[in-house]
Write a structure and sequence with these properties.
Length: 160
């Protein structure tokens, strides 16, 4: 098992990004698990020796003007299999969890604990996503997310 970081700059064969539509829950990022892999997005993480329920995702979502999107926006997490008619909803989390933190702060152990404690996906160990399946990150809020000015990082455990 090894850690795999997927970011908004990862290969287009793994990540596809879309500008969102204001006030409508629309996909911002689709992460497709490559052939032969199974990814786990953990819902239990350790920070300074303390295990906490919650996932760890770095988000910096910005408008076309380069401003951070509203903290009132919601970030929604879904998974979807290749034959699924509809994605499976897991959790909606207010963007305010990430809004006031730079990506550097989000990597800092002090702030990491704050993010994890507010991002419980309501699953035991996390989400296991097999090959060909997708993790969808949708955004719903008053602003349009500009994919060229925004950044995300999701750390998975690759199970095989």
């Amino acid at each position: 098992m090894r850690k795999t970081s997927i970011t908004s700059q990862s290969s287009p064969s793994v990540v596809s990004l879309s500008a969102t539509i204001a006030n409508v829950a629309t996909p911002y990022a689709r992460i497709t698990v490559p052939r032969g892999a199974t990814y786990r997005l953990h819902n239990r993480n350790e920070v300074r020796g303390v295990r906490m329920n919650g996932t760890y995702v770095i988000l910096d979502l910005r408008t076309g003007a380069g401003d951070k999107i509203s903290g009132a926006s919601r970030v929604l997490f879904f998974t979807r299999g290749p034959a699924d008619e509809f994605p499976k909803f897991h959790r909606a989390i207010p963007y305010s969890v990430w809004r006031d933190l730079s990506t550097t702060d989000q990597r800092n152990e002090d702030f990491k604990a704050t993010i994890i404690s507010q991002t419980d996906l309501n699953t035991d160990l996390g989400l296991e996503i097999p090959e060909g399946h997708q993790l969808l990150i949708q955004v719903e809020g008053p602003d349009v997310v500009d994919t060229t000015k925004s950044f995300f990082q999701v750390d998975f455990e690759e199970l095989n």
